Amino acid sequence: MKHKIQKVELFIGVIIFLGGLLTYGLGVHQLLPVPRPDLVVYGTTLIGIILIFMGCDIFSKPTKEMQILENDERNIAITNASLANAYKVTLTLLVLVLFALIFMGYMSKVVFFSIAGVIAIGQITWVEYSGWFYISCPVIWKSLFRSVFVHTES
Q1: How many CA atoms lie within 13 A of 10 on its CB side?
Q2: How much is the pTM?
Q3: Alpha-carbon gap, residue 44 to 28, rounded angstroms
Q4: How far is the CA of 127 from the CAs of 83, 84, 85, 105, 138, in angstroms?
């Protein structure tokens, strides 16, 4: 699973990187209806390079000791806990920066809805993979159903 995601990152990174260089080489970036078409080349090239570096880990061969440490349950629990805390901090800071930029007047509608969409996708992914929705929501719906539709006479 890990290598599949890294292969996809590497492939998409190469495509975006070559696409960015190709738009500059063919001069297509001058025809794009954006305020700064020269930044399209820099942006796509940088995004491609970042994705390529993220996917390059598939070429490293872990040693036997590294595989044992990676599959250790205690290390997995520590890693999951640290990732959960990092996600909470990142999400909190992202929301704070989003509202700070809105109230300072630096945020356009496109950027706002792009960042809000990323936050929403992150939350939906967290709910889906954590299993929280399937565990607690039926209980919540049953209790709401009983309180609204089932009347007991006392």
Answers
A1: 11
A2: 0.53
A3: 13
A4: 15, 12, 15, 32, 14
